[in-house]
Amino acid sequence: MSVHKNVKRITTHVLQEMKSNGERISMLTGYDYSMARILDSAGVDIILVGDSASNVMAGHETTLPITLNEMIYHAASVVRAVERALIVVDLPFGSYQGNSKEALTSAIRIMKETGGHSVKLEGGKEVLESIQRILTAGIPVMGHLGLTPQSIYKFGTYTVRAKEEEEAERLIEDAKLLEDAGCFALILEKIPAALGARVAKELSIPVIGIGAGNGVDGQVLVSHDMLGINNEFNPRFLRKYHNLYDEMFNSFQKYIKDVRSGDFPNEDEQY
Ligand code: KIV
User: Fold this and answer.
1) If you take atom 4 of ligand 1, which residue's CA is the nearest one?
2) Which residues does the annotation mark as catalytic?
């Protein structure tokens, strides 16, 4: 049963209220119309059209190859399905790092061509000018610190970030810069729980974690991971709510068997 009848649309202001009231924010990724309809009907607060589409939808090893046009295709499909959730669209690698004008042009394309409500980009001080320019155009921006997968070749691994004091201090500094610039929320990925809780406490904007512990203001997961569609990805922070890989595999095998045996279609399944 859908929960979005008579429920007000989630906006950046609603998220701010949720933080003020101590209500936790739920966020999941969505890349296509059918999944986005289910996510929205279930009542998720934010749908992230993440550049993780590069991995889970397109099969790339990293998030780097996905293009702005591909992100626009995914985001436009999600927007057509959603009535309640706030939609955040990732600016893909290469669409904002060059300079702030390029960043603004990319963000404007996303807003105009998809109908999405906001954009997300990775990084702190190094992308501040781009964030400011996008915000000046009236486009809400969500920040993303900690493990930033678009910089995977700089880090060299997907292990926990900011375990050392120096990197943790730099992350806190970046988080405050993003808040001061006007970001409406911040994602923290794969950092110690104590650091996640500290950032959430020191910032007045919502802080949403993925592998950042339980002391933040909300949680985000990649839908395909929490549904167990991808059975090869098992990080500690992931809670699997289903084993959809096995369910789908078994259904596909049953169908193949039924076709081969002539059992499908039966009398009731034909005209
Ligand atoms: O692209 C994505 O799915 C993300 C989440 C991991 C936060 O950025």
Assistant:
1) 50
2) 189
Q: List the domain boundaries for the chain.
A: 4-226
User: How much distance in Å is there from the Cα of 235 to the middle of ligand 1?
Assistant: 14
Would you write out the chain's pLDDT as a tens digit for each of its 271 residues? 555 556 789 999 999 999 999 999 999 999 999 999 999 999 999 999 999 999 999 999 999 999 999 999 999 999 999 999 999 999 999 999 999 999 999 999 999 999 999 999 999 999 999 999 999 999 999 999 999 999 999 999 999 999 999 999 999 999 999 999 999 999 999 999 999 999 999 999 999 999 999 999 999 999 999 999 988 899 999 999 999 999 999 999 999 999 999 999 999 999 9
Report residue 115 as tokens: 């109908």
**Alpha carbons 78 and 177: distance in angstroms, whole number:** 31
| CATH 3.20.20.60 describes domain 4-226 | yes
Q: How far apart are CA 42 and CA 26, in angstroms?
A: 11
Indicate which residue's Cα is closest to atom 8 of ligand 1.
Answer: 50
- Give residue 90 CA to ligand 1 midpoint distance, Å: 8
Contacts of 142 (CB under 8 A, 6+ apart): 88, 118, 119, 120, 183, 184, 185, 186, 187
CA 56 / ligand 1 centre spacing (Å): 11
